[in-house]
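quick one, two chains, predict together pls
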Amino acid sequence: MINMQRLKQQISHLILPLSVLVILLVINLIKGPEYFSITMTNGAFYGPIPLLLDHASELVILTIGMALVTAASRGQDISIGVGATITSAVFVLFVLNAGEASLLTIVAGFLISCVAGLVIGAFNGTLVSVFKVQPMIATLILLMGGRSIAFLIDGKLSPLLDNPISKQIGTSITISDQIGTEIFNVPISTPIILTAVFIAITALVLKTTNLRLYVESVGINPSAARLNGISPKKIIFLTFLIMGVCTAVAGFIAVNKAARHDSSNLLKFIMMDAILAVAIGGNSLSGGKFSLTGAIIGAYTIEMLSQTLLRLDVGTETLRAFKAVFIIILMVVASPVVRDYAGKILQFARQILQKVRTRGGGGAEGGTGAPDDTDVAGPDIPVKKEE
Amino acid sequence: MQSEKIIEMEGICKSFPGVKALSNVDFALRKGEIHALMGENGAGKSTLIKVITGVYEKDAGRIVIDEKPIHFKSPQEAQNSGIGTVYQEITLCPNLTVAENMFIGRGRNAFVQWKEMNAKAAKLLSSLGIPASPTQELSSCSLAVQQMIAIARAVDMDCKVLILDEPTSSLDEDEVKKLFELMRELKARGVGIIFITHFIDQVYEISDRITVLRNGELIGEYAVSELPQIELIAKMMGKTLDDVTKIRKHEPVTSKASIPVFESKALSSAAGVRPFNFTIQKGEVNGFAGLLGSGRSESARAIFAADKVTGGEVKIKGKRVKIKTPLHAMKQGIGYLPEDRKGDGIIDELSVRDNIILALQVMKGFFKPFSRKQAECFSDEFIKSLKIKTPSVNTPISSLSGGNQQKVILARWLLTNPGYLILDEPTRGIDVGTKVEIQKLVIKLAEGGMSLTFISSEIDEMLRTCSRLIVMKDREIVGELAGMNVTEHDVMHAIAQGGER
């Protein structure tokens, strides 16, 4: 019974992202069951769902960092796309200068770009934790100037990543291609593998450290956290450092996918999706308790939303408008106001049912149909039935 | 002195869900009088003020202003009727000019006549003797001048009543003097002033009359000359009528030869407590006695480095140590249960379990989390031993009652097994039964060899538990009382006489 309760507690905040995910899956099923087909093409899995997982990689990784930053600092980092552009510029610079593109070069380049990510995180983190600048304002600085820095690093030429490497190796397949798509003989695309590894590492960190307890304490009540020996400054700074690593990994994946470094457009609007993913995941944007599971599901949900809209023949130029409308509906449905209202309606309905039952005596049939869980918001009940 | 009454209140009642904040309170303010409203925390001073100014609606009673029954629905309405209020925190805009601050939101026109406004402000400022220019930015003025400008804003528009809620708490002595001059000037003009403060000396310096409230009830109205300090203090504290089983107080620790568990020399903090010396022996229970704002909490916070320590020397068991942060203090075996349970104690969305293990977990380290099982084991142990009423260890602490929340925080510190535990108002806002439980626990812990500092605004509670009282007044230690036969009277005497050395 206690375990059931705990399970229910853990599930309750996932209701929103899961139900949206289910709605989108159902829409796709109605549009055509080929959505769920997976085929082997050139020795790798292919189909809408593998594609979705592949496309969402950068967003998922950045969302993890965003959830942590939000929980501790009660604000959001809006410079993540720009940060990733800078770290990937560092990566590209290193790989192009290294000459030989061996596995070692790639790993070394990646690690150096991680250092760049840490520097960016330290910069933002110092502004927020030491100088108490609002996170959005602090990161706005990098958002404004960051792409110029990336231009300066990569030589303003949007260099292609594959050309010099392919020449040296002498084949048409480059290592960077493999990171962007699939490594030879591995059926799953590399971004998916990297994301899975990243999620696993995050889970391991949460399991083996007190990151969650510290971050949540600082986000909920910094002054109480301080009196219990936690330094809110250090914890907020730490979340920005983690965010720095996330941007480096996301930048690494994105630049390899594109096989060229486009300083002005790489991951351009991704911070909005990341913030939304955090919110859809049932996390408060004003800090405190957080759920990375929810945020990750939220990230995949947003990617699936774009994919679904494209499948429904919404043009790329109007896609954002449709997405916006969908998210407005989602946020209104999930808002406390509507939840309260829905709860009241349910209660009212239950009262009426009870009256009918006590009056009718045998009219218990209607009663069994009444939903037991009040916390399930209105719209996802019919969805579950359809399923 | 004229005795014409400006405000007359009769039988005012006000309750909030679960609390009777005011019951049957009468209050009268006369023209040209400075009337101090006194009482400890929760006595109902602020509630009474808010009933006058229309922030709260009264449940029962009558308010007569200038012989007309009045019923304000909003603070704005009260303001328009000539009742100005200045709150403790300065509620002006620091980046606007002095004149803008004085008149903003006052004009009935959409357009501001800058010249006229500045001229009017200059006139008012000079007539009240406030050293500020109308076009100066407010943030460039000292705190005292800002406070005076807040008053000038309130008294503009032929004000009849001025309410000052703790106006002096952030001012230094010279600034207080300037403020008092302004108050006397206004008094001479016939303004009635209601003055709320925790500084007893200031009351005796400037007030004509005192009204004392306690636990939402009127204790009485007195002329200042007829009420000696000691009686005022007695009236404010009252006799708490706990039906408490007599708790056995243990013998004062007299072994002066032994090395104290904690010793400080000239310790001071950024919160403004004067440098103080303090020692506590093993197994001793002592306490800081004094009224609210006397510096008793600030001293405790200085020991734990909860406020920034600005000077002094600290020895733990005879060894000199540096305590710069709460974590240093914790590592030296000091625990601190803060006065403000909601603001500094509980992490409200987190579970009872997380709240209990927090301090020990932080001491253990970032990379060594307790297993869930271990954490639950710790929590269950204290939930049982302290009789914490909670549905489960996973319940968020915010859904427990105040007393049970306090026990969780207590459990948090007991789990760290501190050598020295500071309890700042551990019994505030909790029911009598739990109060007694906590008092008994304190004695039991001391018998087990723990040193404790117990701070409470209820003197008899401290007398029951502490074997030595350090008396504080105006952020300074003014005396010390030890022994089995200390009475409430002795404590009040010590507080009252403290400042008159």
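The longest strand of chain A covers residues 39-41.
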